[in-house]
Amino acid sequence: MKTFTNFIFLLTFLLSLSLYSQKTIWLDIDLKETNKINSVYYKVISDDKNKENYFYKSGNIFRKLNYSKRRPIDNFSEFYETGELKTSGKFENGLKEGIWKIYYRNGKIKEKGKYKNGDKVGIWKSYYKNF
Questions:
Q1: What span, in angstroms and rounded, lies between the C-alpha atoms of 131 and 85?
Q2: Which of 104, 75, 105 is nearest to 88 (CA)?
Q3: What are the structural domains of the chain?
Q4: Which residues contact 121 (CB under 8 A, 6 or more apart)?
Q5: Tens of pLDDT along 12-39?
Q6: Strand order across the 61-68 sheet
Q7: What rounded mean pLDDT belongs to the chain?
């Protein structure tokens, strides 16, 4: 009886591992699939197909994206390898929309402007690092 109980426990444990397993895809500098040795980034494929997070090879977050019907939507964030916010903006129907900001590592705005239907519009402002 004890052997049977141990077998059931082991079987349940192994099945739970397979249910929660995630596939890692290694990416090069252009976010093209490559092997682990030549990679700069990676992404983990999970059950939630509407969210995609990219990571530096070191494990720190690189980029956060949300999808709907295979198009980027909602807020977009990209980070420096040290964790500081690098780029922020928003997607609508797969296109950049609204105000986008690019930051220096110190958190100050480097560039700021507006997108409409994926195209830069209006005046884009660039800022010096020391101001």
A1: 18
A2: 75
A3: 23-126 (2.20.110)
A4: 113, 114, 115
A5: 444 444 444 578 899 999 999 999 999 9
A6: 23-27, 41-45, 51-56, 61-68, 71-79, 85-92, 95-103, 109-116, 119-126
A7: 85
Question: Radius of gyration over alpha carbons of the chain, in Å?
Answer: 20
Quote the pTM value: 0.76
Beta carbons of 91 and 70 less than 8 angstroms apart? no
How would residue 3 be classed by pLDDT, with cut points 50, 70 and 90?
low
The stretch 100-126 carries a mean pLDDT of 96
Burial of 43 (0-12, 13-18, 19+ CB in 10 A): buried
Q: Would you tell me how many other CB atoms lie within 10 Å of the CB of residue 75?
A: 12
